[in-house]
Design brief:
The chain has 133 residues and is of the alpha/beta class. Helix content is 37%, strand content 18%. It has helices spanning 15-25, 38-48, 64-72, 93-100, 115-124; strands at 7-11, 31-35, 52-56, 82-86, 104-107. The structure holds manganese (II) ion.
């Protein structure tokens, strides 16, 4: 039943990185939604209510951290876990991402061996504050 599968939104503007994520998650029973910019991502979140968002921080339109703040400020979307995906690995970045409301982060280049377990761990967590249908 495809409707029973969790939806994961991958926000990524680089087609090559998107292929890497797709490849890494292909054995995971889930539906991958993709957005290449912040506006498209926002519209998809509002329409599809994914179970998890993998958020590239550097994207056109609304940047990843601004979009994260927006989604975490909205009662309808704040329960959706957001994992920041970033090429930055500078001191202070983790704090910056957590302060924006990200629930976790993963550095680029993405470790394709670890990504499925990371995603699975977020999908298995009960979504705190999820609105009851
Ligand atoms: Mn990017």
């Amino acid at each position: 039943m495809p409707e029973a599968l969790p939806k994961i939104l991958v926000v990524e503007d680089n087609p090559l990185n998107l292929l890497v994520v797709r490849g890494a998650l292909k054995r995971l029973p889930c539906v991958l939604l993709t957005a290449a910019d912040g506006h498209q991502a926002l519209a998809l979140v509002q329409r599809e209510r994914p179970s998890l968002i993998l958020m590239d921080i550097q994207i056109p339109g609304i940047d990843g951290l601004t979009l994260t703040r927006r989604l975490k400020a909205d009662a309808a979307t704040r329960h959706i876990p957001i994992v920041a995906v970033t090429a930055h690995a500078m001191a202070g970045d983790e704090e910056r991402m957590l302060a924006a409301g990200c629930d976790g982060f993963i550095a680029k280049p993405i470790d394709t061996q670890k990504l499925p377990d990371l995603v699975r761990s977020f999908l298995e967590r009960p979504a705190a504050g999820a609105p009851t249908p």
